[in-house]
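Annotated sample (chain length 263).
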Amino acid sequence: MVKEFAFKGYWALVLGGSSGLGLASAYRLASHGMHLCIVHRNAGVEMEVVNAAFEALRATGVQVLTFNINAAQAERRTLVLEELRKKMGPEGRVRCLLHSVAKGTLKGMTDAPALQTDDLMITLDHMAVSLYDWTRAIWEQGLFAADARVLSFTSEGSSRAWKHYAAVSAAKAALEAISRSIALEFAPYGIRANCIQAGVTDTRSLRMIPGHEQLLEHSIARSPFGRLTTADDVADVVYLLCKDEAAWVNGAVIPVDGGAHIQ
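Output written by the structure step:
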């Protein structure tokens, strides 16, 4: 495998990189020589599996920093960036900020307990506003590469209504709006921002959605290829968007679903 990111001092800062799309993308970038700083939130009982995954990342030959913290807390963000600066040294820079945070509520509006304003605000903070917080903090500290990529994961739920998905739907819509604004206002500083609209993927986060079985069946039925999107499908596109040749892709919402969105 060609390691085109090796020996360039490139790092990927992955928010939510211990499972699912974030972990698959981290592995793909590491396989091509990009160092990793992974921010995740996992309980102690999960750490044996999580640590094994991180060791697999290190086995690719890259440096891997990990932080088990709340990515939405400002003081934690400051700590991560201080440690990352030390680890990168004077030549290292953040080539990719990848936002894969999946902390939100799946309460319905008419159920008991019903969705509350606090539920909406917490979901928005973690799954949307934190993209801007991290982008601005990295930029303020001068840690971005001269050609940097800010990538985040959205879904069709940003523009469609699904039961129990209201808070996450609002967050995904806000995430796309924030990404577009980053693409516009940070472009003079060499930063490109895009959202990847991943197709339905059988992840732990998806299985938390009530009625996810029907969503899986429907997604397979409407796919031109007759299958679900996999985490590796999405990781491939993260890798492609980090390549030099993708520098002119900016401000886009890119469907990565094998064409399921067209029908």
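Annotation: The chain has one domain: 10-262.
Annotation: The longest strand covers residues 144-154.
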